[in-house]
Design goal:
The chain has 91 residues and is of the alpha+beta class. Helices cover 29% and strands 24% of the residues. The chain has helices spanning 22-35, 62-73, and strands at 44-49, 52-59, 80-87. This is Osmotically-inducible protein OsmY.
């Protein structure tokens, strides 16, 4: 195996990411939903694109729809939330 010589001097360059990757942000939001009180997040799917979080799925109560959005918005680097959750609660 042949290794190329280093093209930098002294200290290696560092890569700074201003925003977490989409997968990392999805994981952070999903974890926050799972840990949130007053919410069963078992049937909630989380996707992200450019800081916008989309919540899709079912919750038991109408109040949990608002709670899920509130929790998602509280996660750092979330810029917007599209809430497509539906409730199984009958009116």
């Amino acid at each position: 195996m042949v290794f190329k010589p280093q093209t930098f001097h002294e200290k290696a360059p560092t890569v700074v990411t201003e925003f977490p990757t989409e997968a990392a942000l999805e994981a952070q939001v999903a974890a926050a939903l799972a840990e949130a009180g007053g919410l069963d997040a078992a049937d909630i799917s989380v996707t992200t694109k450019a800081g916008t979080v989309t919540l899709i799925g079912r919750v038991l109560l109408d109040t949990q729809i608002e709670r899920a959005e509130e929790v998602a918005r509280s996660v750092p680097n979330v810029t917007d939330v599209v809430n497509k959750l539906v409730s199984e609660q009958t009116h």
